[in-house]
Design brief:
single chain; mainly alpha; binds zinc ion
Amino acid sequence: MTEPTHEGEAHGGALGSRLNWLRAAVLGANDGIVSTAGLVVGVAGATDDRAALLTAGLAGLLAGSMSMAAGEYVSVSTQRDSELAALAAEKRELREQPDAELEELTEMLQNRGLSREVAHEAAVQLTERDALKAHASVELGIDPDRLTNPWHAAWASFLAFTAGALLPLLAIVLPPAGWRLLVTVVCVLAALTLTGWSSAGLGGAGPRRAILRNVLGGALAMGVTYAAGTLLGVAGV
Ligand SMILES: [Zn+2]
């Protein structure tokens, strides 16, 4: 979920930005499903104890969602800091050397395919309206009014991961002992089919390979942790 706002800008403003947030949410939920499913299925390989399963699943949910949120907060904050620094530098340049900045904007518009005269006229008009916004957009590719908020990004990751993690957690603790694994594996693979399909759709890619990769990845995670849990359970650790 890095810089959803900016990628969105490139694909057409608010709609692109919303799609990117949505895609990030689907990927966050996917993470929550796979990591928590791997965890609880691994513990289920070692023990039948419902309390142990609940404890492990809940700890995994909290640890994962907080780690995702913290990572997202740090990454978006860093990005925001560098954007703010770039905007401050731009503001200073506009104040100290307006002619050079006008020429710079003109050349950038020329590079985008405008003739010298049209680029100059456009640069003059853009500068009159909102010089900083024009430079930020053409030069830095950012919208100074719509920088990503690190707290929003952190909360979004936290909620997306938690929503995904709840599924394997409930699927492993609610059914009777004999049905636990089957219910969990079926629910998880069905959910991964759905998240694979949505993220492919939101990214404009064909769904089949995305679904296959996603389902195989989840099946592998559960298979490996179940094998490890079973070995530990048999060894009586
Ligand atoms: Zn500039």
